[in-house]
């Protein structure tokens, strides 16, 4: 049963990100319609799925960093600074991808 946990966590994450992508797609679709700029729903779906699934790909990196640099214990301040730096790097990579 322990081996199923990473797989289960992956599916839960993908499910949450899929729902999030669909909600944001619908929100943008409605907003553009109200502003008089109709666009096909597929454009928003592709955009949002690309964005949120890139974050899903970055997730394992983020989880690995939390294990490598825990923010509790004797090196708390240094690890918080490392997390801030890593957050900036990961965010820039996801945005540029």
Written description of the protein model:
82% of the residues lie in helices and 0% in strands. The protein is mainly alpha-helical and 97 residues long. The chain is elongated and about 55 Å long. The model has no long low-confidence stretch (mean pLDDT 88).
Q: Helix share of residues? A: over 70%
What's the shape? elongated
Which blocks of ≥5 consecutive residues have pLDDT under 50? none
Estimate the strand proportion: under 5%
Along the chain, the helix and strand elements come as HHH
> What is the mean pLDDT?
88
C-alpha-based Rg, rounded: 18 Å
Span of the ends, CA to CA: 35 Å
Oligomer: single chain
Q: How is the biggest beta sheet arranged?
A: none
Strand-pairing-aware structural class: mainly alpha
How many individual β-strands? 0
Please count the helical segments. Answer: 3
């Amino acid at each position: 049963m322990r081996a199923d946990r990473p797989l289960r966590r992956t599916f839960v994450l993908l499910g949450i990100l899929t729902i999030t992508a669909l909600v944001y797609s619908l929100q943008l679709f409605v907003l553009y319609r109200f502003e008089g700029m109709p666009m096909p729903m597929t454009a928003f779906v592709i955009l949002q799925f690309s964005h949120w699934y890139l974050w899903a790909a970055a997730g394992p990196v983020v989880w690995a960093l939390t294990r490598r640099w825990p923010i509790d214990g004797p090196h708390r301040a240094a690890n918080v600074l490392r997390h801030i730096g890593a957050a900036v790097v990961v965010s820039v990579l996801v945005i540029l991808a």
